[in-house]
Amino acid sequence: MSxxxxxxxxxxxxxxxxxxxxxxxxxxxxxxxxxxxxxxQRKSVGSAWLVGSLGRGSAxxxxxxxxxxxxxxxxxxRVFDDPGAGLHLPGRVLFTRNKPRNAPAGGGYVTVCVxxxxxPVLIDLYLWPITTAALPTxxxxxxxxxxxxxxxxxxxxxxxxxxxxxxxxxxxxxxxSSILLLVQLxxxxxxxxxxxxxxxxxxxxxxxxxAEIVTLRQILDERVDQxxxxxxxxxxxxAHRLLDxxxxxxxxxxxxxxxxxxxxR
Length: 265
Prior knowledge:
Layout: H1 15-40, E1 45-51, H2 52-56, E2 65-71, H3 77-81, H4 83-87, E3 92-98, E4 108-116, E5 119-129, E6 140-144, H5 156-163, H6 176-192, H7 195-204, H8 213-225, H9 233-250
Parallel strand pairs: 2-5
Antiparallel strand pairs: 1-2, 1-6, 3-4, 4-5
Helix pairs in contact: 6-7, 6-8, 6-9, 8-9
């Protein structure tokens, strides 16, 4: 699976940034291979596939993992309640964030943040009942047992809308895991130079519009650190490492004409 940086991603500044981006891509490949091995060992898993940028083949080093796992009716309820822990997925878990309304009907959903190459990587994990599961047009099959899943002419999001759970429960916007997730997404879009999505993410939880790296650091310190339990300290440290990387990639410490930016720390 080739994952060269697309043209819309600004080139990294310096060898260390390049090495980190290469390392996280390789670590993500290794995590996926280990995950396939784990899922093969669970008899209740019928198939699994990637959606999102990894499913479409347009992933870059900042891409999250969007993973759909189709399971049969022998799957215990505890697995639906916490798919990440229930499936025993590999990797060091930094935090999880539940958002039940993102699940397919009769299934489960959780965001799991794992540490890969010392950086935080988000895994959006969908547990889908095998009776309604279908491979979307933008999906990439990872494994199947006796026969592959049926294909659909729909892309993933329209398919989800057709099978979405009636549970409208969202995530707590003030929970430290929500702040961590939004900071990481804002940093990702900043690194890509995707200003509209970056601004949309920063507005989502009343961040300052278009928050730059120094503001994202302050948000971590002020809205996560003080509220966090000790178990979240590794997640906060990993988020700061991501911000350091994005700072280097975007040249946030130094403007193009060589003058320090106004928000430099």
